[in-house]
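Form 7-S
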Amino acid sequence: MVDKIKLLVAVLLIAAGVAGFYYYADQALLYRVLGLLGVIALAALVALSTQLGADTVSFGRSAAMEMRKSVWPSRRETTQTTLLVLAMVILVGLMLWLFDMVLLWAVKMLTGQGG
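Output:
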């Protein structure tokens, strides 16, 4: 129950920050943005103190650890794959263009607009 209250407080803080951002429209934009960012940071701290926040941080750390385990392709592999994709895009584009030209010719013949 305490976690739900903390999350509600975080949401209310963000809502108050947004409301304050528009309420003080006559102030300099820099101050309004800094104030909004401060309120969002405070709301994030409140939200991170909940079990859901701890689980989110744990998930983020696990995801970062998995990213470090990834094997990235070499520059040569990346270049070859990019060139292959580019060639296939051009090939499929030409095939679709030819198919479109044939269909256009057929429609013109059927409608009597062809020469």
